[in-house]
Amino acid sequence: MEEKKRKPHKPVIMPRMAKQLEQVGEQIKLARLRRNYKATLIAERAGISRATLWKVEKGDPGVAIGVYAKVLYAIGLPDDILLLARDDELGRLIQDAQLLDKGKRK
User: Fold this and answer.
1) Could you tell me the fold of the domain covering 15-81?
2) What is the pLDDT of residue 106?
């Protein structure tokens, strides 16, 4: 019997998330261009191929977040990765509601 080759699993991305990833990629590309860095230089600094950098700049959801972090570092924006999920408004509301509930039980 012949083994079937598995196709690589593509992540399922909702349209809104796809747009957000495209925006992130565009922001990374603009940051690179503002600094007058060539794509080949940033790819080399990040230790990735030019094709992978192109995917990052397009917001490809199949690119690992670690690659995005390496590109930000190579561009000179290493701390920007810390902006992800920085202000968890919903989490704070949930936590505050639980804290208030605990206070009422005393």
Assistant:
1) 434 Repressor (Amino-terminal Domain) (1.10.260)
2) 58
